[in-house]
Amino acid sequence: MCCWDHVLCWIRSGVWSGKLGGICGGNEDHGTVVCAPWTGICRSAADTPLSGMQEKKSMVEMKVLSSHEEWLKARTKIGGSDASAIVGMNPYKSNVELWKEKAYGIEPVDISDKPYVKYGTEAEPLLREMFKLDYPEYQVCYEENNIWFNDKYPWAHASLDGWLIDQDGRKGIWECKTTNILQSMQKEKWDHRIPDNYYIQVLHYLMVTEFDFVILKAQLKSVYGEDVYLQTRHYPIERSEVEEDIKYLIEEESKFWEHVQMKKAPALKLPEI
User: Fold this and answer.
1) Where would you tag: which of 16, 18, 56, 81 has the fewest CB atoms within 10 A of its CB?
2) Which class in CATH covers the domain with range 76-142+163-262?
C-alpha cells in the first residue's frame, strides 16, 4: 500500500513532491520532499536536480481524504463516472441531467445500497489482490478515498481503483468492473472491447493523471439455476493509441463546464441505440 497524506505529482518531469510526514519517518517536519513514485523513498529537495523544472506543463495532485463523507463532498466537479454522460454515452443519465446536478448542486440518486453496487464495492479489494498475484510484474498501489486533480483541467477530478508501475517505470491506471450478465447482448458489449461508458471513464482518468496506460479488470458473472459462472477479462489500453479520443473528451468536458458555470443547459445528447 502506498501511504501518502498528500502528494504533488510533477508528471512531465517525473518529479513528485509534497508533504509526506508519515513516509519519511516519525512526526518530524521534513519540509518539502521529493519522492520516487509510490516507493516512499524520500530525499530532500536540495538533492534533486532542478533542470527542466521550468518545462513542466501541468501539475497533478493526489489527495487522500480522511473519510468517505469528505470524499463525497470533494466530488463536486466532473468525475470519471460523469464523463460518459457529457458525450451522450451513459445509458443511465443524460448530459442535461448531469448539468442540472453540477449547475444547481442537486444530489445524484444514491445507488450505494443497490445489490450490484454493494457486490462491486466488496469484490474490488479481492480482485485487486488477485491481480497482484496474477501479474507480479506490476507494482499495484491503492489508497482509500483518493482523489486526483490536474491544474490543466480545473473542472475535473478522478478517483482510481488503483494505480500501477510496470517494469519500465511507466505509470498506469488499474480499473475494476464487475457485471452480472443477464442476457447475451450484455456479454457482447465485452467482446474484444469494453462498453462505451467505461471507455470514456478511463479516458477521463488518463486525462487527469496523464498516465501512460490502463488495465481494466472485468469480472463477468452469470447465474444459471444454482450455478454461478465467473469469467475474468483484462483489457489493456495504451495512452499513445487513444490520444485523439482524449483530446475530444477534453474539448467536450471544457464546453460542458462552461454551460455549468453559465447555468445554461447544453443541447441534449443521448446514447445511440
Assistant:
1) 56
2) alpha beta
